[in-house]
Amino acid sequence: MQLSTRITGLTGGGSDGWDVFLKARAMIAKGINVTELTIGEHDIRTAAPILRDMHAAAMNGHTGYAAVPGTRALRQTVAARVQARTDVATTPDNVLITPGGQAALFAAHMAACDPGDTALYFDPYYATYPGTIRGAGAMPQVIETRALDAFQPRAAALRAHSKAARSLLINTPNNPTGVVYSDETLNAIADICREDDLWLISDEVYDTQVWEGHHLSPRALPGMAERTLVVGSMSKSHAMTGSRCGWIIGPQDAIANLITLATHTTYGVPGFIQDAAKFALDQGEAFEAEIAAPFKRRRALAKGVLARQNTVGLIPAQGAMYLMLDIRATGMSGEAFAYDLLAEHHIAVMPGESFGSSAAGHIRVAMTIEDAGFEQALQTLCAHADALSRR
User: Helices marked H in the chain — which ranges?
Assistant: First the structure.
């Protein structure tokens, strides 16, 4: 039997960008010691108090079908958090709880786009973006950003595609680049969305990880609340990656229809996980800062290592748990360098090409191992790049 083109065409006929990661995992399975600087997985586990609350909720019987939109208590907590951070009126009716941020991205595109509509996104991009758009039946259209501009999107590049599109997906703080979009950039994006009647899908899962500048949610800009769907998640802010609990913030009518979609697809999130998510959010910003602190600290370590050499360049690391490193001085592509580094030193990084053509000649490093090991791996990476540049 033939499978649908929808499912067989998710990657567009090419790689899904995970090849180096999978090779590293295969080496680990054979007993080879590999330093993994690949995926955005905290080196700490979910905090014990959150797990105790989750266990208590399960033992107290919250293991049946939970309300599909999310429990009222969690929706109220998320709404209050968003309103406090953005000064935009937000109620539980503006919130849908989803099985993680990835499910929220898919649902948001299902809400914004009809089959065949053009859905825009910026390159570099998180590896699942184009496949998510294809899965929702829309046509992905990438817009390049430039290392020369520190990967800040340019209004002119967006305008070249916006009139024929239905939606635009943005991500700030950005994965993979670590760039935080400036107020100027976000205001220009908002202007174009209003002028050309675009839905804006704003992936804000790294909003608690800002090292320079500040995070501005575009939903807070004039005239944007009614055309913006914000994706959030407990994964990065609270080290709850495996719990799969996220949300969409949007206009009430959009959320009402997204609840219908959830009824026919995911049928909600387990109640005991939602209870634990509420407990985690109730710990406040001090707890979120504690979860983010290792990445801020390792960023400082990385800047020190990189300042002592001149082969590997650092894209401004303003937020998120990643560094985007320029290795073009080696004369290699990001993919070739990543494979070479893995073979020679058993250090696994993500090639820039995994995130689009704009990041060619770069690599993404996740700051997700303990400090001493992270610093040593970066020193080895830089020494390897320097040796390659001298050949």
Answer: 5-8, 19-29, 48-59, 72-86, 100-112, 129-135, 155-162, 183-195, 235-238, 252-264, 271-282, 284-307, 334-345, 371-390
Domain ranges of the chain: 5-45+286-385, 63-283
Q: Give the residue from 321, 335, 309 showing the smallest Cα distance to 390.
A: 309
Q: Is the peptide bond before 124 cis (omega within 30 degrees of 0)?
A: yes
Which numeric CATH code is attached to 63-283?
3.40.640.10
Euclidean distance between CA atoms 277 and 312, whole angstroms: 39
Query: CB burial class (10 A; 0-12, 13-18, 19+) of residue 280?
Result: buried
d(CA 64, CA 232): 24
d(CA 207, CA 249): 14
Structural contact between residues 290 and 281, judged by C-beta atoms closer than 8 angstroms: no
What is the model's pLDDT at position 373?
Answer: 97
Considering Cα of 294, then 240, then 252, then 134, what sign does the dihedral take? positive
Q: Low-confidence residues of the chain, pLDDT below 70?
A: 14-17
pTM beyond 0.70, yes or no: yes
CATH 3.90.1150.10 for the 5-45+286-385 domain, yes or no = yes
pLDDT tens string 337-375: 999 999 999 999 999 999 999 999 999 999 999 999 999
Spatial distance between the Cα atoms of 134 and 136, rounded to a whole number of angstroms: 5
Q: Which two tokens stand for residue 314?
A: 């650092």
Angle at CA of residue 9, ends 6 and 13, nearest 5°: 175
Would you give the end-to-end CA distance of the chain in angstroms? 52
- Taking phi over 0 as left and psi of -120 to 50 as alpha, with beta for the rest, 309 belongs to beta
